Amino acid sequence: MTVAQAVFPIDLGAYQYLKLDPANSTLTDEQRKALKANIELVRDAIVFFTATGAARGVGGHTGGPYDTAPEVMILDALFRGSPDKFVPIFFDEAGHRVATQYLMSVLEGSMPAEQLLSYRAAHSKLPGHPELGLTPGVKFSSGRLGHMWPYVNGVAMANPNKTLFCLGSDGSQQEGNDAEAARLAVSQQLNVKLIIDDNDVTIAGHPSDYIPGYTVAQTLIGHGLKVLEGDGEDIDSLYGLICQAINTDGPVAVINRRKMCVGIEGLEGSPHGHDVISVKAAIAYLEAKGRTEAVKYLQGIQAPKQNYTFIGSSDDLGSNRNVFGDAVVSVLATMTDSDRQEKVLCVDSDLEGSCGLQKIRTAYPEIFIKGGIMERGNFSAAAGFGMEKGKQGIFGTFSAFLEMCISEITMARLNYSNVLCHFSHSGIDDMADNTCHFGINNMFADNGLDDGYETRLYFPADANQMKACVEAVFFDPGLRFIFSTRSKVPYILNSDGNHFFGHGYKFIPGKDEVIREGTAGYIVSFGDSLYRSLDAVDRLKQEGIDVGLINKSTLNVVDEDMLAKIGNAPFVMVVEAFNRRTGLGSRFGSWLLERGYTPKYAYLATHKEGCGGLWEQFPHQGIDPNGIMTKVKELVR
């Protein structure tokens, strides 16, 4: 049975469209019963349809939307009971709690329940963060974690006679712009009510362990907010606090204490609850609730597979983002204990498992800092450590968050800092979170002047080159940015079928490499676009079009010898997953013209909103092998 034919196996028609009046802060027995029934129904539905994402391999997030069901159910009833009093939007600064937005869209009739069965799938219009204008019923784009409160302040100023809510979390409140939002809300006495899920859990662990002394409540009190604290699972207390917040002028924060994934065996209180629930755990939960049809549906899901067979690269895959950590550990192992502790500091931003930094923490915990969800401050801390000659700061996070650190990067350069940065999840591959998590503006890091302190941008093509790159540049001075993808990538093969970057290979910063020679013209690529370009090149050669391929793993340095070689070819085409407006292709043509080279020129890159899913993002942007081959054939006509 296809998704289009399937029936959502949990009866959402059982939802009770309750109306509540904040003037009455005590629930009746009937209201309490209805709220509890709605909470259970919504939680069961969230567990089920987010688990379909797990079953199809696109991931997702279960714990956040599951946890905040009680407050969302109360807000929904308040919006319905007093529609003129509120801006009826469930603004949420933890964008990964998108399941809430999708489920509420269904309950208000904006889309059919069956659409939820395609949660995070390609072309389903249900990406991992809400996007305004894409999904029916979604009323805002959340962007990345901790970005909504400042925005909601502006919405409040546009609606001075209404109350607004912003759902938050102890994780999102770690972001520095929330401190700025708090001060503005207090100074302008904005009628914004923060409803914060405080479960002491983020991806990398428990904030009470890694940033002791920090509390959401005391922080917000320090900014001047009125703070109300309670048990998020006590429905009467929760409702009373929300009513108190509404009936209090100005900004108020309601902080709800609860365990992550309360009531879900194996996930309760665990950081694992942050991500998508496993199919096994979801089935156990749903069976205990008697949701047999939902269980059957989960058991029948088959994950879609990438059936295209790439040529020119290996069948086996390597995880560059994890190899980064392995490579750093191998370099650190060559240092004495005293030198290592004196000269190296690694600062994480709650993504150690995603960026490979957990390898460094496991091997050398004495040089590792769990910095929390504070990218700008953490980057600057690493840079400050690396201010002294001979010392190295190491920093890692997602590539999409590089944009948040531009000013700090400039300050690090002005202070001659030495920082080795790993920005994983670069480009678009395997990015079901979609557009707000695309790492496509990485060239922004190269924002210094021609005579400024050295900055180098590297994007290795496979795990072999990643290891060689880290080993080659680790002790270099200046700012070094190494990029990797979320997806695993195959190993690049030479014409003889052996690993191109295998035994004996040495990475030379600033030097481009000829992967395939050609007479018809050259494709220039890097990272995970390289093996796709290689597939296209080898297939074009089979068709009699002799195209060459260049690997430009150092993105911001002109290799004059290579530019002269390809500049005299009939055409040059850059293929990349970066932003077409800001990527390598946007400057490569200028490099050619400045030196008097005039081949036909084109560049393919990410140029439109994402489609969700995993590998599907590449053909969606026209930078898969078929798209590359089509463009080459236009150039050689």
From TrEMBL:
Name by which UniProt lists this protein: Transketolase
Family, as annotated: Belongs to the transketolase family.
UniProt cofactor(s): Mg(2+); thiamine diphosphate; Mn(2+)
Entry's Gene Ontology cellular component terms: cytoplasm
Entry keyword set: Transferase
Signal peptide span: none
Tree of life domain: Bacteria
InterPro entries: PDH/Transketolase, THDP-binding, Transketo_C/PFOR_II, Transketolase-like_Pyr-bd, Transketolase_C, Transketolase_N
Assigned EC number: 2.2.1.1
Record bears the keyword Transferase: yes
SMART domains documented for this protein: Transket_pyr
Domain named Transketolase-like pyrimidine-binding: residues: 318-491
Keyword Transferase: yes
Single Gene Ontology MF annotation: transketolase activity
PANTHER family tied to this protein: PYRUVATE DEHYDROGENASE E1 COMPONENT, TRANSKETOLASE-LIKE PYRIMIDINE-BINDING DOMAIN-CONTAINING PROTEIN
Pfam families: Transketolase_C (PF02780), Transketolase_N (PF00456)
